[in-house]
User: What shape does this take?
Amino acid sequence: MALSATTRPDRTPPAKKRDDTRLALLFIAPALIGFLVFMVWPTLRGIYLSFTKFNLLTPPEFNGLDNYVRMVQDPVFWNSMRVTVYYVFVNIVLQTVIALVIAVLMQRLTRRTWLRGAVLTPYLVSNVVAAMVFLWILDYQLGIGNTLIAALGMDRIPFLSSDAWVIPTIAAINVWRHVGYTALLIFAGLQTIPETMYEAGRMDGASEPRMFRSITVPLLRPVLALVLIITVVGSFQVFDTVAIATRGGPVDSSRVLQYYIYDVAFGRFQFGYASAMSVALLLVLVIITFVQYRVTRADSSDLN
Amino acid sequence: MTRRLLAAAAALTLTLLTACGGAGTGGRDGTIEYWLWDSGQQPGYQKCADAFHQENPSLQINISQYGWDSYWSKLTAGFIADTAPDVFTDHLARFAQYVDLEVLRPLDDLGPTSDIRDADYQQGLAELWKGQDGKRYGAPKDWDTVALFYDKAALTAAGVDPAQLQNLSWNPQDGGTFEKLVAHLTIDANGVRGDEPGFDKTHVKTHGLASEGAGGGGWGQTQWSAFAASAGWQVTDKNPWGTHFNLDQPALQDTLSWYFGLKDKGYLPTYAEIGGSNSIGTDKQIQSGIAAMGISGSWMISTFSKLTDANGKKLDIAIAPTPIGPTGKRASMFNGLADSVTTLSKQPENAAKWVKFMSGEQCQDLIGQSGVVFPARPGATDLAIAYNKTERNLDVTPFTNQVRDKTTFLFPVTTNAADITALLQPRLDAVYLGSEPVSSLTDLNNQLNDLFKVAQ
Assistant: This one.
């Protein structure tokens, strides 16, 4: 009995399995080394540095919880937390709604490849270039955007130089750049929904909006949840647009957390304090991702 | 996402492994790496470098120029990554921090620069570059003051005699003759001047005075420093190395109320009009007709002398001194640049030789004759004045008279400069925008003083 059990399945000798492991390790190794060197090690070192006073040029000195105490008492930190959350909210709501609409239009109306390519084009523009271009377009005096607004007889809008406009403007710039990418992710999710569902819907005389509400959205949930997790994490790390377009101004109204961290580290050489704030950002992101994952049940699908 | 990052990380590993082991610190033996930020000065210093090479055939100078903003981040990265130059152009606002970070070599300890004498330079310049330990960290290369640049055409159109600008005075109550002129030079969209009835301050075409922002980055150097100082105000208790700040004093707060009040009257462009955080300077504001005149520094002389209008026709720009204040005197910030040797340099003695050469007579005369800045040596300064007179038909004595008449005050040199800027900039922006009252600077002053109370 025992003999037949080992020989019967496809004549696979046990030795070959060991070969597989080696080969697998070989394939995993570059990624694993990269992960350890560029992800795990910097994270651990960053956490260590958050308990030190460090200016990068002289050795770090351990100072316990000083950085964290300072962080809790720092009004600029709390302000940048508020600004960041505000940005994420505007950015994610706009981006997800528009991306969903674009994806559904692509799915239901046309499936031309060039259209998909066109939707993705802004994503191919680097963040810095996008920020520069919009900085010029939206310039209060000379930008073509404001020139058009003035030509229409309206008052010029200080898009990037008033505290009320600056965060919505930066959020909109980044929506422009990322919406195509998000739409494609959602579009891929839409394609996993069987066409038969829609056929059944049509047979029952459901309208397009009704099918969107009762078929598309529920079945898209796991993909949408994943997209949200990715975009929210990315959105929290907004930096380049702020660094190029406003440098945190006017006053502190666009001083998002990542920019404040950068400023403290590379402008003021306080790498210990900057690390402490980075750890705080890490914690916030871990909590948000965890909650999102649980609330949206991203790991289960209603398709079965 | 994770997979994408992993793949990228793996790819990076390979790239880095192959890319490592390239750049080192400074130049190879015999080539001295030298950095500066002002592209206008590069041709002049290239001449110096050539002259230096003739004197020292075994030594070469390689000059790299980076714009002001990227200059400092590149330098910082260079110190960290061991790719900093041997010698670089240093600024008073930054050098204290670099001394604290131990990246500057004391020039007294290097043979060629050990005998630099304070008396060879314009009074007070060389002393600014000594650290709290009394050692010299920079060899003075040039100096600057501020003055009023104006468009002669704007004055003619307003029927103002340019001679009038030589004796303007101001005070924080009604702005004096200075504010009268600024008001008169301001024109709204309908062509009504700022001092005429029916002036619409919300739709101004040309402002009387240009704005270079709130001035948080350099103690209002080209914004309000000339006014505050002529009202008798000083930034710190002593300079250099002050530890107590005076932002709570009425002399400053009254000056700023008046200065930023010009914006509410339509005489000064708003924060939004000059482009917010990415603001355009006085030169561009005069060029584009947003402003008729404005305060700017002597390092901008050559830029102003080349300004053209939309049709490519040269603008006729002239210079007037800063107005006389309540103390009965004018005032201008007196700032200067110097060359510093980095501790990362592998050939400090050679680097010092180059620094010594740049601070010497031969090079400074060459710089004076190129007419971009005022060299630190008095003799070379005279050459620069003569160059501007003959080559540009420009009288630059409003800059130099401030030094002659001793109406200058020195740039406030302190430790913690980066922290001070980080605190100062947003708060002054808020005052400029009008979202905070000038009295909020009293709180800011306490914060600045606290910076020096905690042991650093």
